[in-house]
Structure formats: structure tokens, C-alpha cells
Write a structure and sequence with these properties.
Elements (H helix, E strand, L loop, with lengths): L18 E4 L11 H10 L3 E8 L5 E3 L20 H5 L5 H6 L15 H8 L6 E6 L4 H11 L5 E5 L2 H10 L5 E5 L5 H11 L3 E5 L5 H9 L3 E5 L4 H10 L3 E4 L2 H11 L21
Parallel strand pairs: 1-2, 1-9, 2-4, 4-5, 5-6, 6-7, 7-8, 8-9
Antiparallel strand pairs: 2-3
Helix pairs in contact: 1-4, 4-5
Length: about 280
């Protein structure tokens, strides 16, 4: 057990503001890089979301795509090469070009290992990490969490109920943010979430409505929306009572929340015997 795990309860009071930095602070920095995750922590998001895949040599790496072509200076297929080769790609390249930055302004960045991001997260007690397993790697992820003693810093998000169920089977205390497409059956989604003990439904913004927000809250669950960068839409979602917003621009959302003042979140109904305990953390 690490020294971090011996911390007092007062040191482990994480932020709770409903701001998930999507792939880190990916407006300010290249997505899913150490710079983006440091920026998300500095911004004050209570969660930062990242995507994980596995390399040919079994390393759990942080990348949304199965290849490095969209973000990097050359393309490799992550599942087909060892991590050392993946690490040789500069995944800040596309961000630098898009924003017309110099290498001094935007230094080269490498695809990080999940363990590197978790070690960063464990240096503080404000921001937690929501892991999205893009491939069948939940067991490997949980093994890394156990080796590092990082469980308290981590939750999971994905659209696959099987992957989320697998994470809960390892540790029922893991927060689960179950991603839903815009036009899924909300009644069925709620039924599954309650049955599986998921903490939150995170709905594609294109399908978000007041009726869905009200239905999710009536079931005693949290509701989130992904992925929103426009402040007008952020404000509209907050007015609906959405508990969590996934955004590439966490600083903008945090400024909006600060300007609006304290939020009054809907009060869930009393927990029925046998129903899952829901956390709004």
C-alpha cells in the first residue's frame, strides 16, 4: 500500500462541480496527453476523462483512436506495435499545426501510459480520472489500479454495459458513468442502470431533453451530457438540471458555473430497499 493510500479522510475530499475535462483540457493542450491532464487538474475539473487501448506488448496506453494518424506526425496502429514505437510518435503535431504554434509554444508530446496519468492524479486530491476502455482491457486496468493503490482516484465510463459491469464486478465502489447515444430508450437505460448499480447516465447532447433529465433524476440517478463546448448550450443544460457536462474546455464551463453561483441539484427520491446507492460525487 502506498503512502497516498494512508492519507487522512480530510485529504481525500475530491472536488464535486460536475465538470469532466474530456480527454483532459483538450482545448488548451493536445488531447489525451500529460499536458492536457495537468491542465485539467490546474483548471479545477472534478473529473478528467481519458481513453485506453493496449499495445502489441500488452501496455495500457492512453489514446482515443486505434491509430496515431489523426493527432500524430506519423501513423502507427497501436494494437500492432510495441509501446516504445508508439512513444516515438509526436501526438502534439496536429494540435500544433491546427493552432499555428511553434515547438517552443507546443512541445512534442508522447502517448502516455495509463499508469503515468494515474501517478499524476495521485499527487493531488481534487481531480479524479474516468477511464474509458476502448478495447477489452478492464481487467488490465484494474490490475494497474491495484498495483498503484489508485482505486479512489478512478471511475469508468463507456457505452458498453458489459465493460461497465466488469468494472463493477471488481469493485462495486467504482463510479460508473454509462455513456448513452442520443436516441436510446431512456426507460430501458434507466432500468439497466438501476439493475447494474451504475451511478450516472451520460447522454449524447444531441438527444438531451428536459423529459430525459427529469426521468433520470426521478430514478435517483445522475445525468450527464457529452460533449459540449458552446457556453450557450452549457447554460441551457445547467438550466435543465444536468448534473455533469463533458467538455473539451473545462475552464469555460467552470467560469460559467462561477458566474451563476451555487447550483441547487435535484433531490433524488428515497432509496428503496435493494436499490443501488447513488453518489452525486
Amino acid at each position: 500500500m502506498t503512502a497516498m493510500n494512508a492519507a487522512s479522510p480530510a485529504e481525500t475530499t475530491f472536488l464535486s462541480n460536475g465538470v469532466t475535462a474530456h480527454r483532459g483540457d483538450s482545448v488548451a493542450c493536445p488531447e489525451n496527453t500529460m499536458a492536457a491532464f495537468r491542465a485539467a487538474i490546474d483548471a479545477g475539473a472534478d473529473w478528467m476523462e481519458l481513453d485506453v487501448l493496449t499495445s502489441a506488448d500488452g501496455r495500457v496506453v492512453v489514446s482515443h483512436d486505434g491509430t496515431t494518424g489523426r493527432t500524430g506526425d506519423r501513423e502507427v496502429i497501436i494494437a500492432q506495435v510495441p509501446y516504445d514505437e508508439i512513444r516515438s510518435v509526436d501526438v502534439a503535431h496536429a494540435f500544433r499545426v491546427r493552432h499555428r504554434l511553434t515547438t517552443a509554444e507546443c512541445p512534442p508530446a508522447r502517448v502516455p501510459l495509463l499508469s503515468e496519468v494515474l501517478c499524476l492524479a495521485m499527487t493531488q486530491f481534487r481531480t479524479r480520472v474516468s477511464v474509458q476502455p476502448k478495447v477489452d482491457c478492464v481487467d488490465r486496468v484494474v490490475g494497474i489500479l491495484r498495483d498503484l493503490g489508485a482505486g479512489r482516484w478512478v471511475g469508468f465510463n463507456d457505452g458498453s454495459p458489459a465493460k461497465m459491469r466488469q468494472a463493477k464486478a471488481h469493485d462495486a465502489s467504482f463510479p460508473i458513468f454509462w455513456d448513452r447515444p442520443a436516441h436510446s430508450d431512456i426507460a430501458d437505460d434507466i432500468r439497466v442502470a438501476l439493475q447494474e448499480g451504475f451511478h450516472s447516465l451520460v447522454i449524447n447532447d444531441a438527444g438531451m431533453t428536459q423529459a430525459k433529465v427529469d426521468a433520470v433524476h426521478a430514478a435517483g440517478l445522475d445525468v450527464g451530457a457529452w460533449t459540449i463546448n458552446a457556453p450557450v448550450r452549457m447554460a441551457a443544460l445547467l438550466d435543465m438540471g444536468v448534473d455533469r457536462i463533458y467538455t473539451d474546455d473545462p475552464r469555460r464551463l467552470l467560469r460559467l458555473l462561477n458566474d451563476r453561483g451555487p447550483r441547487s441539484l435535484p433531490t433524488p427520491p428515497p432509496r428503496l430497499p435493494g436499490s443501488p446507492r447513488v453518489s452525486r460525487a
